[in-house]
Here is the input.
Amino acid sequence: MALTTAVSDSGRYDIVIEQPPVNAFSIGLLRDLTEAVRSLPEQARVVVLRSVGRGFCGGGDVKEVQSLPGFEGILGHGRYSLEVGVAIEECPVPVIAAVHRYCIGIGVLVVGVCDIIVATEGCQFVLAEADNGAASGVVQALGLLPDKRMRAAMFTCEPFTAEEMHRYGSVYAVTSPGDLVTRAHGLADTIAAKRPAVIRALKQSMNSSAGRDLVTKYRAELSYTYELNMTGDARAARATFVEGTREGYVPSDADADAARGGS
Here is the structure.
């Protein structure tokens, strides 16, 4: 199973992703994630979204997009990247993202619409849209980075870290890998202990005041991505990854050891 769910006695609803080898998000996984969020159990008071394995998300499944006929791949990814974002934003209870080691492409967009983020030390985030022929994801990325920093990250596809986002306030806490789940669960249990009606009302109030208008803005962004696919520029960009003429963004185990000081 690529996705499992469980509800604790406290009302914490865990959604856990496991899609080896790097947790690349396929169309099916995005669809299942959307359904898991929308199928919120009645007793759930807070959601914790996390992954197990090498890292949180290795990006969208580029090989799947390339292999499907016509525009089926990009249309599927576009549809469900929008639907999962809307599901998280409209989820009646807070959604906490617990992110470890790396979060790439569509993973950043998913995390960008969560209410709270906890991440591991040295966790790398990459907005890989430019290298993959996409011109969308801006509205979600603005939930993580200031405007000019977001532009640099999207134009260059260079990684930025959990520590940097913690300085901006968009990451709530940076933890050791071993403490990530404990910290996320502790935060979730704190929220779950409060009056459910108040927390639900507060989330609706926050969404209304933030006024992100995710559906309108992301659909407009997707129009540019779809145009790039129609002209062939997007397919050519993705081909450089599939054919191995450019490297991906998932850090090697050696890089991870170096980031931990060789431990």
Remarks:
- The first strand starts at residue 3 and ends at 7.
- Residues 72-90 form the longest helix (19 residues).
- The chain has twelve helices and nine strands.
- The two ends are 31 Å apart (CA to CA).
